[in-house]
Design brief:
The complex is a heterotetramer, with two copies of chain A (494 residues) and two copies of chain B (470 residues). Chain A is 35% helix and 11% strand. The C terminus of chain B is likely disordered. The chains are: A alpha/beta (494), B alpha/beta (470). Bound molecules: pyridoxal-5'-phosphate (2 copies).
């Protein structure tokens, strides 16, 4: 082989006409028995078969098994990807969510009492944890939860005929989904800056809050990894201006059982069950973005909810919640994800819940300390880390001409998934590091050792960083070419 | 401690490294007044053994019904390798492939998935998934509006899944998108072309949504509808069932050759039939495909093929400038986490079935549904509503409201269909039934027997079933 | 073609490369007269969908009983990770690690397993598994005979699992090994030391088998028995329950310090309690450990740690000169394939439970069994046979034969225990019951209620239960 | 790190006192409720806890996931290990054998009709396939099947008072388990040579067969990969001498549906369900060694069998089969393995069964042809390959001073598991190659290309072979040291 090829060929290149995993096909229609069907006219039919791969069952199994080997994952690697809470996903959650009876239930079949009992209890537990009064499990990821939240805020103002409120205040450090959501909800985004310690610039907030303010979207601890301790003040300002407070629950892992968004003054919250409650990340989902609301927004919760009357569980829909912002999914959200979160939460229980935030904080603060001792600069050295923290390589980038991306890629060679890079955008050359509570001290120490080694490499052989990774299935990939010479689907005969 | 690996020695070593006296101290920036007390409302921890038993008992309580409901979610055979592989930790516990070099497995799989969606739909570009079919339609509507900002009106015939229309409304209404619903042709159970024509006044609609097969299982005259829409400068948003695409004309070829503008503009749909279990409604996934011309308006992740510094091919996320993490308030959508694991399952499913397998699934579904319709319409009081060519669903008309009949069937262990009474009262006492390749003759017989019983019961309302074109 | 990937083009290309005109020709060395016709007795192929449905229906027909049977196989909680990982293709579909460099995963796992078995048993060397507990005892007996060829007699008290004794006999009898069964002490339910003493005349026995806990769940006085055996120059073969070793004296320490020869010589047992499902009896696995001095007599694979050409540590099969593929007719055993996948499961299980978890499982089992015995013996006509310290099984005496009572319990969904009537008539109307950590109070109550009902039924035979030491 | 360490540490080195996967522990005994138990005296208790690892659930999951990455397997690699039939193991077999109701059944619980129906039908199918009259599923692997077979032969002679028959004839090429089994059964082994074409030396057979002959153990096709076409003659000789014929079914894959051992004159057969019927090899088991017998040995089948009367299935034991050789396992053999084989056989069905041998033979003959074209020497060039064949490197070893082992190790670098090496012992420097029917032509071609490349390397850079493998987690391991410095268990504090 002259040119280097893919480590594992494309499934299309394993294909051969006439091959197939025949035992997966439905039984051949028995000539004698085949039913007369309403004829489907030629004009509605496909002229030629779609170019799907034709492979044997073994080929498919081997191909996807081999592809799996090209991934880092929690099950195989430390994965301190900030803002993503890559904690251990207990196998039990999957095992029990995949019981055949659960899997075989059609969403429109008569209401399954066992499953709905789980969902009802999940709603109740989430209320308790967040200090909210109502919870809907229907949003299918964090961003959809945000959408539901802002839509509820809008519905609230609209119901009060307060129609001028179309601005959503968002701190600069916010996750991209926050402003994007505001736009999707037809709002205008007002960005406010952060202060030196990662807090909200209160003066800027005061300046922007007013009669056009629909609400503010906040993450607390923020995406800068620090807790906004003036949250009561923030709440006062926004509420006084007539706006509502939205809590982006992506960082809920930091405060579980320590402080509740409801008690901080938030009116609405979304949770990322795939983060805090450890449902799998699945290579990019599915998630679940359950929303919780305070009393003002109760009527607007997205449907369906699970209700319970006389010991029978049922879906509550338009009928029971006529003011709901409506449906967000074809059925009832990512039901199976919610079931996994339920199993996880039952295994944690009351005592385990607070342990999550405590040990997430212990791990993050320990890492921050060790990395600063190794010479790295914490973005907010005067602050406690929450469950995550930021280091900035602004000095290193100047001194050694290496970037945060170089460090990230080099870490892969040490068998560690890189932290989140270049987010939040306002900290230059940053790495957002979230170890989670399920990692051992030894794993953290290994990470610190690798980071120390990388720091030494910066000084002595920076090229090693710039050309990293060296041990992955591919070297550094050309992202620019990926855009310029767009190749997003296999084409026959190439 | 469940899932926390720290020994007491670890804790004290770490605290002293930090310079804190206790774990509590790490939370000292939280104002005391805000601190939560014990979460009394939460139950005590269960061991895995206990939770396993609880869930097993609840699952057993739910039992299993013989299912004949479709209406947007379809029971298909799921090959054993699909979930055996999709649940491998390397897929299950990885996240969005931000670090491409350490995520080639997921990235290549998504590239293969995009290629398969393009092959099925006949389109040029597909994304890496959206949440589900309904929300994918909502995104498609917003995308159409971006592509054709002159108008904010979308035509959604009543032949489209009513929940899809609702979800599109929930999501798109905030951007002042208006949805106009147009009537069903009651004789054929298809979109009424005349209603459509009268619905556009001048040129002010952005797009027409065409569902194929439509919500009733009937096949629309997609060429005519597409030509009409394009002639009137509407974009065509196709909502399709992916299984059916093994045998039906792909949206990329809708419309007549002569029109000079063949093909839907945006295609979306529910991916669940491709190896995803029914599971009370989710997680499923939405797929979306479009023409290359519109790709920068498409929401969601896209994987592209590129090369590394040594010229070796590899895969990476691409065209990210459309997305929220780059474009923030100007992004095409707020979507971030999508439905990766389901895409993994679907890609394995499609690889196993291939063109022949999927074609046979589709053909078998169509045949099974005809068998079911024949068996049920032999029962007095039950008639087929339409004789239009269909895929794997059919509308039945009863001589009484469907709801008590369905309840009686459920008591006999049969999920008999979807009651159209609430969503489509114009059809009379109608219900939607579905039989996929999973239904054996014995199952259809069992349904017919149960239906005979159920129809023997006293009925609230009398009269023979009305067929609307009689 | 199911599982065959060849296309017609492949077949003709390959045949022409071979130079054969047809596949049939490849079988031309088989005499025509011998060729088989169609296998008419076989059913036609089923698709996975069909076979899945068949098996699902058969499983449903079997249902689930609330299980209180032990007698050699024990129902324990199996952590979800155990089988999620053991069924990964890399473990599930690899074979014996002949190519060490491409099998380090399996090899290291077996090394870890051997280490865990040594830790549990207190022995120096363990093998990579035998088929099951019963056949492991057979192998242990043959090994004892090889280690002590002066004698071919093995003492197996009637306190040892009777099926183990039978299997040992089936396997070892061909090498003229004689088994002598010695009596139970009917008061304590332990091995009768006097019977033992009188069973050896001179010095002609090779080994004594001691099961701890014994078949009745009772704890033997292992120090006394071991000292006695060693004093009489018998090897001690310990048959142990691995869960119980979390709390009981390991066989490596059996015997008194003063004896100067502490420890069993060969240890074996059933590994099933360590993460292996009951599954109608298998696959399970047998474990075996011994002193280093006897290692060359041990059957089965052994993994050793070594280094590669660059000094990096690694693992490989070792001491293969004991085995059939090298030694052929002079091998220690004919065993080849063993129970690798179950060892994989057990190693994961033991890693998850650890010393504390396993101790708590053992303690919980003991406590649950006491609860069960208390609940059942409150019922008139039911009494405990022994008051000897025990692990997680107990013999109950009934006032009537156990078999119809067990049948009545089964009708109530309860697998109530093992009828000792056939194997141990000397105990009277006895049955063996077991409760592991999986049994909640509500389960024990359910059993007691069902037992009360069952004992209310007319009985064939009357009389209050006799306790043998009354 | 100065010294190279293990790719993945030992689980013991991940352990820390006090750590554990707590949610796997049973519920803590509630002080108030803890039952008074019969006191266990100190002398029966353990003095200190066993040194098992103490790790978190994530640590365990990650450790074993990472270990799994160090293996070759069918699911990830072509694995042409001769005599082992490493074909695709359909996932469905595992999925359906692991249905909760099957798994939870205690072997001594009332007889489960659904499970036993499968076992009964499996017995019937195996009878049909082998041409035998009775089948027992109880032997737990091939070797135990052999044991059962020879034990039945002995029981047969004994029942006829023909007690002098204590010799078992075994061809030189036989698998090691054959002679080892004979010894275990208290027999003497009489080895007979093979002729130039891999056949049995009939003269030698005639010479050795006689009044002491209990039977002969044969594999056909033999382990030399060729079919003994004079099998009828062999049968005649042995039967005339008063002995019985034992068929080692390890190579049944070669003749499935083509010729039946019963029709060849065999009296008893064992099958390796983990080979021919594709139950998993599991890193070395579990297997299942079902035995089939002709009319003469019916009374001696190992118990339990599954019987059926009046539509009820039941285990048949000592009571029904008083002459049985007895029990071989604590319960009823490797039940779950048998269930997997059942699922597989139902998916193959009548038509699929013969396809197995046809395509196994096609693949083997194709490979043999291509390898000889590439310059390798087939051990029996005049013969058809069966489902496997042998190449011998006797010339190469002389010319280039490379061994079969070197080739085997070098193959690993090409991503192919090595064929069986140095077996059968009588062919010098041999590789026994069994591709199986589930591999594609492309996979075979890749193997041939690798072998051709290796052949070129032999000539040009033989050191590359001698020092292979180069890309595995470890380089070539020191087997001698493994024996000399025996280290077979981790010890604390090393
Ligand atoms: C702070 C923050 N908010 C919102 C989100 C969006 O959540 P999701 O990806 O589930 O839509 C994320 C996750 O990436 C996040 O980190
Ligand atoms: C020819 C032959 N006979 C017998 C056996 C023994 O089978 P098992 O390993 O299942 O005991 C084998 C398998 O390795 C074999 O190849």
């Amino acid at each position: 082989m002259s040119e280097p090829g893919l480590r594992e060929p494309l499934i299309f290149d394993l294909s051969k006409p006439g091959r197939g995993a025949a035992s997966q096909f439905p039984p051949a229609p028995d000539g004698a028995e085949a039913r007369r069907t309403v004829e489907i006219p030629q004009r509605l039919r496909r002229a030629s078969r779609p170019r799907l791969p034709e492979v044997s069952e073994l080929q498919a199994v081997r191909h996807f098994t081999r592809l799996s080997h090209l991934n880092f994952s929690i099950d195989s690697h430390f994965y301190p990807l900030g803002s993503c809470t890559m904690k251990y996903n207990p196998k039990a959650c999957n095992t029990y969510a995949m019981l055949p009876e659960f899997l075989s239930r059609h969403p429109l079949a008569p209401e399954p009492q066992g499953f709905l009992a789980c969902m009802f209890e999940l709603q109740e537990m989430l209320k308790e944890i967040t200090g909210m009064q109502g919870v809907s499990l229907s949003p299918m990821a964090g961003a959809q939860g945000e959408f539901a939240g802002v839509a509820m805020i809008r519905a609230y103002h609209r119901a009060r005929n307060d129609t001028a409120r179309t601005e959503i205040i968002v701190p600069q450090a916010a996750h991209g989904t926050n402003p994007a959501t505001a736009t999707m909800c037809g709002c205008t985004v007002k960005e406010i800056p952060c202060d030196r310690n990662g807090g909200i610039d209160l003066a800027a907030l005061e300046a922007v809050a007013g009669p056009a303010t629909a609400g503010i979207m906040l993450t607390n601890p923020s995406t800068l990894g620090v807790f906004e301790h003036r949250i009561a003040e923030v709440a006062r300002i926004v509420h006084q201006a007539g706006g509502l407070l939205y809590y982006d629950g992506a960082n809920l892992n930091a405060i579980l059982g320590k402080v509740r968004p409801g008690d901080m003054g938030f009116d609405v919250i979304h949770m990322n069950l795939h983060k805090t409650f450890s449902t799998p990340h699945g290579g990019g989902g599915p998630g679940s973005g359950a929303v919780g609301v305070g009393p003002r927004l109760l009527p607007y919760l997205p449907i369906p909810l699970v209700g319970c009357r006389d010991g029978r569980y049922r879906w509550l829909t338009e009928r029971e919640l006529p003011s709901s912002i409506g449906r967000l999914s074809g059925f009832m959200g990512n039901a199976g994800v919610n079931l996994r979160a339920y199993v996880y939460m039952r295994m944690l229980g009351r005592q385990g819940m607070v342990r999550v935030s405590e040990f997430a904080a212990l791990n993050a603060n320990y890492l921050m300390k060790r990395l600063t001792a190794a010479g790295y600069e914490a973005a907010y050295p005067a602050r406690r880390a929450s469950h995550e923290f930021i280091i900035t390589l602004r000095n290193e980038s100047r001194l050694f001409e290496v970037t945060a991306m170089d460090v990230a890629k080099r870490l892969l060679d040490f068998g560690v998934h890189a932290p989140t890079t270049y987010f939040p955008l306002l900290v230059p050359e940053c790495l957002l590091i979230e170890p989670t509570e399920t990692e051992t001290k030894e794993e953290l120490d290994h990470f610190c050792d690798a980071m120390s080694e990388i720091r030494r490499e910066m000084e002595r052989e920076p090229e090693k960083l710039r050309s990293a990774p060296h041990t992955m299935p591919v070297r550094r990939l050309d992202d620019v070419r990926a855009v310029k010479q767009l190749d997003i689907a296999w084409k026959p005969g190439r | 401690m469940p899932f926390v690996p720290h020994t007491p020695a670890d804790v004290s070593d770490m605290l002293s490294a930090i310079g804190a006296g206790s774990i509590d101290e790490l939370f000292d920036e939280i104002p005391e007044a805000l601190k939560a007390g014990t979460l009394h409302g939460l139950p005590a921890a269960l061991r895995e053994m206990e939770v396993g038993r609880l869930l097993t008992e609840r699952a057993a309580a739910d039992g299993r019904l013989l299912n004949f409901i479709g209406a947007g979610a379809y029971e298909h055979h799921i090959p054993a390798p699909v979930w055996a592989i999709a649940t491998r930790g390397e897929f299950y516990s990885a996240y969005t492939p931000y670090q491409a070099e350490a995520s080639q497995g997921t990235l290549q799989l998504i590239y293969e998935y995009q290629s398969m969606i393009c092959a099925l739909t006949g389109m040029e570009a597909a994304n890496a998934s959206l949440y589900d079919g309904a929300s994918a339609l909502a995104e498609a509507c917003l995308m159409a509006i971006r592509a054709k900002p002159e108008s904010r009106r979308i035509l959604i015939p009543r032949t489209v899944n009513p929940v899809y229309a609702k979800v599109a409304q929930t999501i798109a209404r905030h951007q002042n998108v208006e949805f106009e619903s147009t009537a069903i042709d009651r004789r054929t159970g298809r979109t009424d072309p005349d209603a459509l024509k009268s619905s556009i006044r001048g040129n002010e609609a952005a797009a027409l949504v065409i569902q194929q097969p439509n919500f009733f299982g009937n096949l629309e005259e997609i060429d005519e509808l597409t030509d009409w829409a394009h002639a009137n400068r509407l974009l065509v948003i196709a909502v399709v069932n992916p299984t059916s695409l093994a045998i039906f004309k792909p949206p990329g070829e809708w419309g007549s050759e002569e029109s000079g503008n063949r093909g839907a503009d945006i295609v979306c749909g529910e991916g669940q039939p491709l190896g995803v279990p029914l599971a009370s409604g989710g997680p499923y996934f939405g797929f979306m495909a479009t023409r290359l011309a519109h790709i920068r308006q498409m929401p969601g992740r896209i994987v592209g093929r590129t090369v590394d510094t040594e010229g070796r091919p590899g895969f990476t996320l691409t065209l990210q400038a459309r997305e929220q993490h780059i474009r923030r308030s100007k992004a095409t959508s707020n979507i971030c986490t999508n439905q990766g694991l389901l895409v993994t399952a679907a890609t394995i499913y499609l690889s196993l079935l291939g063109p022949e397998g999927l074609e046979r699934v589709a053909a078998s579904c169509a045949e099974r549904t005809e068998s079911l319709v024949q068996a049920l319409t032999r029962i007095p009081g039950v008639a087929a509503a339409f004789e239009t060519p269909r895929f794997h669903e059919a509308v039945l008309l009863l001589d009484r409201p469907a709801s008590p009949v369905l309840a009686a069937l459920a008591e006999r262990g049969i999920a008999g269909g979807f009651d159209l009474g609430a969503s489509h009262p114009e059809l009379g006492h109608a219900m939607l039934v579905c039989a996929t390749e999973t239904k054996l003759d014995q199952d259809i017989d069992a349904y017919a027997r149960a239906m005979r019983d159920a129809m023997q019961l006293p009925r609230g309302e009398r009269g023979r079933p009305r067929r609307h074109h009689e």
